[in-house]
Amino acid sequence: MASVPTTFPALLRDVVAPRGAATFLPRRRASDPRPVAFGELARDVDALAAALLGGGAGSNVRRGDRVGVIAENRYEWLLVDQALASLGAVSVPRGVDTTPKELQFLLRHSGCSLAFADDDRVARELLALRGELPALRGVVVMQDRTEVAGAQALGDLLRAGAAAANTGAGELAAARAAVTPDDLLTIVYTSGTTAEPKGVMLSHRNVLTNVAVVTEVLHVTAADSFLSVLPAWHMYERIMDYLALATGAQLVYTDRRRIKEDLAGVKPTVFAAVPRIWEMLHDGLVGHAQKLPGLKGKLLRRGLSLSRAVGSGRANLGQRLAHAVLDRVVLGKVRATLGGRLRLCVSGGGALPRHVDETMLGLGLPLKNGYGLTETSPVASVRLPHQRTPGHIGPPLPQTQIEARTADGGRCAVGATGVLWIRGPQVMRGYYDNQRRTAEVLTADGWFCSGDLGHVDAAGNVWITGRAKDTIVLAGGENVEPEPVEAVIKTSPFVEQAVVLGQDQKALGALLVPRAERLEQQVPRAQWDVRDGEVHSREVHALLRRELDRVLVRDNGIRPCDRVAQFRVLAEPMTPENGLLTQTLKVRRHVVVERFAPLLAAMFAGHRGD
After folding, report:
1. Whole-angstrom Cα distance, residue 427 to residue 203?
2. Tell me, what DSSP letter sits at residue 395?
3. Is 460 in a helix, a strand, or coil?
4. Which of 220, 349, 390, 566 can bridge 584 by disulfide, Cβ–Cβ 3.0-4.6 Å?
5. Are the CB atoms for 307 and 363 separated by under 8 Å?
């Protein structure tokens, strides 16, 4: 296993600070080009930790104290995160789009005594909640200055801490020496695919053993450059940031609007994203190929088609030869638009659609489909560098066990589907102040019930088939996993998003969000008839009905009970901003059901939507 310290104070002292002037962040955030060196981070962490220890922000932060961090990807996020970790304080992170109701819950439930805010707007929201947060004694704005009365600026804390560095050095060193591997590092509240958020407790050992093992398995080195796009508070992104920090690699912040631009310009070697982002990159390539005229368009379309055949392993000799020719002619240029240096592409945080997996592998992208949860710090398994077959998520990490179990707790036979249970050093301590929920998923001997359905094949690779709680049971007793059906539906060039529903119904129904640009090429917008957030057009419905009938077929793994009988077309996409997706772009099914209850009731009653 790679040599990584088991506490963050040790990581800071032994790994980060000695790297001195080497660049860690080429830019402080997606919109701020100022670079940050490893040594600068170490000095700023020292200054902030000293200020917090000395009573800055009206709160003497000590080992075990919980501190909210409500912010987005930026240098200051990592600075605050590492300063808290170096003192043994416990970060409670969340994004800036969190509703005041959610903020109140997580800060109160965790008992935060201090909170860091991304900007003045977030600080005002926090201060407005102060009456409901009896433990909260201070708010710090993660900027050099603040206009908010009652809040303090991070810049002031850094200056005060730097000025007191010599006088408080002994106290700071003692505080750091007291931190143990089993101290809590963070409490991360689940991101909201279910109605009840739970505070996942992760220790320094949980996270840093995961960093060490992933570093070894994926061969991460100081020569790597990471492109960071996922929310910093989410464990999937945090582990990537910590990998860069622990290995001396560079970390480059971007945002979803700049992904393509930064892939081409930054030329990263490592890019980790959720399935939806890989799907959007895939669909962007396909859409570009469809619009590209003449011979270039024909060659690119053929190249993408052959890439899927090759990536799936189903290509015959003639297809492989043709693919090799097109790889030199057009597909190499496609890889160049993604920077041309990607050696590690990671998909995690949800199910990667099979057609995207196959096409990207056939394109020559080293796509590693991984698996894990917040409760597993987060990585439990990942496809290994030499594995080029699609669908599975590789074997469990070293020191990790994954097994499929039946409903009565028995171990499933090889290849048989059951609920996946995980045991390893990365498994959480439990849910904060929630013994009942902890007991439901965590056994005394350290096995964690993931709630995911899957199996382990004869080669030891893990396959995911769905979520146990998402399983739809139709009136006839048939069990349907919605995600695979949704993935097939989205292979249609006219469908951007799909949510399959139908609990206790005779047949499945679906909510579809069309790919507007492609759809209006077939049905002009003048014929869309948008009313009450829904597209009622007969022409649109007829086209999408044909598409559903075309893709939901046996050759795509679809059973008769998986067919969609009824559907409705939404006029607006589902996004994190409207609450229908999490920040990692997973569907919040319970919110969809609540939000569209009247529409769903009419759909399943058989009322026409056109």
Report:
1. 9
2. S
3. coil
4. 349
5. yes
The alpha-carbon radius of gyration of the chain (Å, integer) is 25
Q: How far apart are CA 71 and CA 94, in angstroms?
A: 7
Q: What is the 3-state secondary structure (H, E, C) of 536-551?
A: CCHHHHHHHHHHHHHH
Asked whether the beta carbons of 544 and 462 are under 8 A apart, the reply is no
Decide: residue 484, CB within 10 A, 0-12 exposed, 13-18 middle, 19+ buried. Answer: buried
| pTM to 2 decimal places | 0.86
Burial environment of residue 216 by CB neighbours within 10 A (0 to 12, 13 to 18, 19 or more): middle
With contact defined as beta carbons under 8 Å apart, do 231 and 76 qualify? no
DSSP state at residue 103: H
Euclidean distance between CA atoms 241 and 227, whole angstroms: 10
Burial of 597 (0-12, 13-18, 19+ CB in 10 A): exposed
Query: For residue 495, what are the CA distances in angstroms to 481, 529, 546, 603?
Result: 19, 18, 12, 19
> What 3-state DSSP class applies to 181?
coil
Q: How far, in Å, CA of 7 to CA of 212, rounded?
A: 12
3-state secondary structure of 510: strand
The answer on pLDDT for 58 being more than 70 is no
Which are the contacts of 305, defined by CB distance < 8 A and separation ≥ 6?
none
**pLDDT, mean of residues 509-537:** 90
Q: How far apart are CA 34 and CA 27, in angstroms?
A: 5
Question: Element (H or E) spanning 184, and its range?
Answer: strand 184-189
In this predicted structure, what is the pLDDT of residue 582? 84
Q: In this structure, what DSSP letter does residue 296 have? A: H
Report whether 91 contacts 185 (CB < 8 A).
yes
Longest dimension (CA), the chain: 76
What are residue 455's DSSP bridge partners? 463
Burial class (CB in 10 A: 0-12, 13-18, 19+), 410: exposed
State the Cα–Cα distance between residues 285 and 301, nearest whole angstrom: 9
pLDDT tens figures, 142-189: 999 999 999 999 999 999 999 887 777 889 999 999 999 999 999 999
Instruction: Tell me what the mean pLDDT of segment 572-577 comes to.
Output: 92
Token couple for 552: 């939901």
Per the CB < 8 A criterion, the answer to whether 610 and 536 are in contact is yes
Q: What kind and span of H or E run contains 487? A: helix 482-489
Alpha helices in 313-406 (DSSP H): 317-326, 332-337, 354-362
Q: Contact, 529 vs 536, CB < 8 A?
A: yes
- What angle (nearest 5°) sits at the alpha carbon of residue 264, between those of residues 513 and 97? 45
Would you call the peptide bond into 390 cis, given omega within 30 degrees of 0 as the criterion?
A: no
**Alpha-carbon distance 576 to 253, whole Å?**
20
Q: Report the candidate in 559, 572, 560, 563 with the shortest Cα–Cα distance to residue 599.
A: 572
Q: Is 157 left (phi over 0), alpha (psi -120 to 50) or beta?
A: alpha
The pLDDT, as a whole number, for residue 193 is 47
Please, which residues have CB within 8 angstroms of residue 280's CB and are 6 or more apart in sequence? Answer: none
Is the alpha carbon torsion for 194, 198, 199, 204 positive or negative? negative
Res 262: pLDDT = 96
CA distances from 338 to 180, 302, 304 (A): 42, 20, 15
Q: What is the per-residue pLDDT across 375-385, written as a single tens digit (0 to 9) for each?
A: 999 999 999 99
311-347 pLDDT tens trace? 999 999 999 999 999 999 999 999 999 999 999 999 9
Read off φ and ψ for residue 70, nearest 5 degrees.
-105, 90
- Asked if 200 and 189 count as a contact pair (C-beta separation under 8 A), the reply is yes
